[in-house]
Amino acid sequence: MTFEQLQYFISVATYESFSEAAAHNNISQSSISKHIASIEKEIGSALFDRSRRRITLTPVGVIFLEYAQKLVSIYEKLQNNIKVCAYESGQVLTVGMHCLAMHYDALPAIVEFKSQYPNLNLRTKHLPNWNIWDTLESHECNFGILYDDGIDLSKYQMLTLAEDHLVFVVPNSHPLASREKVSILELKSYPMAFSRSRTQMFRIADNACYRFGFEPQISVQESFPEPLLSLLSIQGLGMLFLDHALRYYNLENLKVIPLEEEIKVPLVLTRQAKMPMNATEKMFYHFMETYSAIHTDDQHF
């Protein structure tokens, strides 16, 4: 169980209501119920009597509450001590961010973290994915935020922050523009626009085609989304891209067509797996883990 789950349990015990506790913690009622059920499964006993309108603690729940409050109190003191330690040591935390990460809640999460720890020297660098890997290797960046396009888990630790999925975007003149959905298998018959080979978007789209047994017909390539989207209309091409990220670009005269196959692409926080985390890194990682869990449940991340 996690400290967040303990905090959720304490909230439910305090409010004697799952809905009120959920509202207090800014998550859905179903989510907080799942967290409580997870604790109950782990300890092998019910914590709440749910047979009445206002839920009450079971005898096991009463005992569990006493220890949960102590543990959370100790943990909060630990966080405060870590905060003081980070301030006093002058540690710098640097996060390398993929340009498309701006289209999710990764940056607001970092801003929120900074607001909670205003004296911490926190920096962000907006970099292409190949530079993020370089800065992680050189220790110039403590963390990177980019897509999981097959990241080597033997070398890198990952935390999923958000999840997007591939769609097919075409000009209104394209032969498939009238379709409500297309299969990715149909795309092997059409020339397409692709990102440059060293980009994550190239690997994501290319790997998707490879998974379904064909090599894409790449007619034109550009490094950045804006010129690619412009070329679609000019050359009558289609392009595989990420649905949520597309919403931040000008899509005039273009149509976004869902794929029949669901091809999910996670946005992740990553770091070198074999490097021990210092106190500041642990504080940031824990914050991002909590922030993403809350906002993913509420469909905001």
Which helices and strands appear, and what pairs or packs with what?
Blueprint: H1 3-15, H2 18-25, H3 29-43, E1 48-49, E2 56-57, H4 59-89, E3 92-98, H5 106-116, E4 121-127, H6 129-137, E5 143-147, E6 156-171, E7 191-195, H7 200-211, E8 217-222, H8 225-235, E9 239-242, H9 243-246, E10 254-258, E11 264-272, H10 279-297
Parallel strand pairs: 3-4, 3-5, 7-8
Antiparallel strand pairs: 1-2, 5-11, 6-9, 6-10, 6-11
Helix pairs in contact: 1-2, 1-3, 1-4, 2-3
Helix content: 40-55%
- Mean pLDDT across all amino acids: 88
Give the strand tally: 11
H and E order: HHHEEHEHEHEEEHEHEHEEH
What is the overall shape? globular
Q: Give the N-terminus to C-terminus distance in angstroms.
A: 23 Å
Gyration radius over CA: 23 Å
Largest sheet: 7 strands, mixed
Structural class: alpha/beta
Strand content: 15-25%
Report the total helices: 10
Please mark out the parts with pLDDT under 50 across 5 or more consecutive residues, or reply none: 297-301
